[in-house]
Amino acid sequence: MFTFSLPTKIIAGPNCIKENAKEIRSLGKKSFIVTGKNSASHNGSLFDVQAALEAENISAILFDQITSNPSINLVRKAAQTAREEKIDFIIGIGGGSPLDAAKAIAVLATNDLDDEALFSGPYAHPFLPVAAVPTTAGTGSEVTQYSILTNQHLETKTSIAHPGLFPKVAFLDARYTLNLPKLITIHTAIDALSHALEGYLSVKATDFSNLFAEKSLALLGECLPQLSADLAFRVREKLLYASMLAGVVIAHTGTTAVHSIGYSLTYFKEIDHGRANGLLLAEYLRFLAPSYNDKIQAILDLLQLKDISEFSDLMHRLLGKKEEITAAEVMQFSSKAAQAANLKNTLIKPTEQDIAALLQKSLTFLS
Amino acid sequence: MFTFSLPTKIIAGPNCIKENAKEIRSLGKKSFIVTGKNSASHNGSLFDVQAALEAENISAILFDQITSNPSINLVRKAAQTAREEKIDFIIGIGGGSPLDAAKAIAVLATNDLDDEALFSGPYAHPFLPVAAVPTTAGTGSEVTQYSILTNQHLETKTSIAHPGLFPKVAFLDARYTLNLPKLITIHTAIDALSHALEGYLSVKATDFSNLFAEKSLALLGECLPQLSADLAFRVREKLLYASMLAGVVIAHTGTTAVHSIGYSLTYFKEIDHGRANGLLLAEYLRFLAPSYNDKIQAILDLLQLKDISEFSDLMHRLLGKKEEITAAEVMQFSSKAAQAANLKNTLIKPTEQDIAALLQKSLTFLS
């Protein structure tokens, strides 16, 4: 038994926005561009989007104040502007933060919701349509129904999940990722790896979601060992493709314990999201290996790695020195993660003690 | 550069219709069931659909007069009833013929079109939504934007192709295929094979469409040698899954010369559609092999076959005695096929002479 739904039209290739400007036309006449402060101008994506909008006679309001791990208040502020300007649709440009912010703004632009109802619904009105332009290869948000925000009430990151959040169209142009700093390339690629790997090991995995996970893992297996060097355009394209495929995976399987635990590392220790996952992945595989050796060997084979030690070495080579974690932090984070909703997708639901052990082994533990 | 769009929500598994009746609710309150005379009652699909509609308080008009290779006039007749009854949406149940008819009825129920405009558009009004319940594993129509009808004006089968024709939801329950006669199982499986294989060899093939084609070919490679025996449910599920994947492929790549040529065999000689393709496939591979050996070897590897001879033997074992074809028929059919629109998707566009040679070699030629 499986269900598969991918309402997002995916358009990929160099110059795909300008060559497919008409795809945006059906979304409306007045757009709201949601992005971060600088990167969209530097990598050329903002210019391409603006040119496409102009070609189609679509007006645009620019909101370029999205920060990493956007807060509820930030998206409220943007949604207020969107309402005042009576916009028809939203274009998110950037990494996971602007894309997830764009989706949350699409919810709040048409719905009056307090902070709790923002995540839980019910949603009285259809959301505004969203077009997504990823400029990192990691989030997969361009093909998911999730918007993940920093939730100061719960002291973690929490998700809005709703079929109405699938972008109507995603434009994948790897040119925008060409000049990403090495560290961002690594962290985002590991985020994609984490999606494909967790999706493959999710209780919700199906033959069909595995088709995408396996392809994503195979592509990442080719790319990961090269990430510390300068990357050819062909590698950038593979990473963006792999990241999208991994997004399709988690759209169907959800994420698992790695994300549940990683959110605390990001919220409290400001460790980048992809990096946080990457720190945890090897011990996560070791945790599941005694019961799910076949699945884990399949993942390692796809990644062209011999065993979990080789996997661990690769992560270490890419991530460098691990962050420190104190006993108090371990206690705090494991208690927090034990309440996370996506924990239930894990093949073996870890106890609070399991999570504590995993954190201790994954970071540099200051006992 | 690629574009991927799969607006159909796919729900698969035993009992998936009854367990997901709410998915139909959003399509409207009054339905039009389009199916053939007997099979939908015999295989249980009609009963399940009616039970799901009843559970959701949706009324239904039954149109069970769809024949093989439905004509324009037949779908006009059904569309007339649909209009008079002011229905909200259509449920197609059956093999390719009822599903394609359901889609054409969805066009004609809201648009006044003469026979030519039915295929070419423009279409002034949105089509009615369609839900699809395949009861053979071959057509893939449940996940495509095509409706293929017998066109007596052009003396061939022609397609309506429009994004509005993707079914909103497809229910894949292999139980309905359990008691299919052996010959239908074989012909429809070879139709799926033809889709996956032609899609893989289409000029429009992309990495992404190949992901689906490769998986479909691998599954068919496991199933095809067993088709002459009684099939376990697990094999029936694989066939239905492979057929859907192959449908996703042709939704993106179109079909190629095999379909162009096969349509004449069906129109003039009443050879079943899947069978017609199957007769042609081996010679089609031989035609392309000198220039595209790597791609063809990849297909053969996925099918677990050594070379084209083994492929040809497998087709012969499944299809039995080949039909005869006269010199006059070869001339007529190759002239017809040379005008077909999907010919241009072929890696090497065959000339009329190429097509004539392919037909002579593929059937029993009466010179």
From TrEMBL, chains A, B:
GO molecular function: alcohol dehydrogenase (NAD+) activity; metal ion binding
Domain Fe-containing alcohol dehydrogenase-like C-terminal residues, every copy: 185-362
Keywords: Oxidoreductase
Secretion signal, residue range per the UniProt entry: none
PANTHER family cross-referenced by the UniProt entry: ALCOHOL DEHYDROGENASE, DEHYDROGENASE, PUTATIVE-RELATED
Protein name: Alcohol dehydrogenase iron-type
Keyword hit for Oxidoreductase: yes
Keyword Oxidoreductase: yes
Gene3D superfamilies the UniProt entry points to: 3.40.50.1970, Dehydroquinate synthase-like - alpha domain
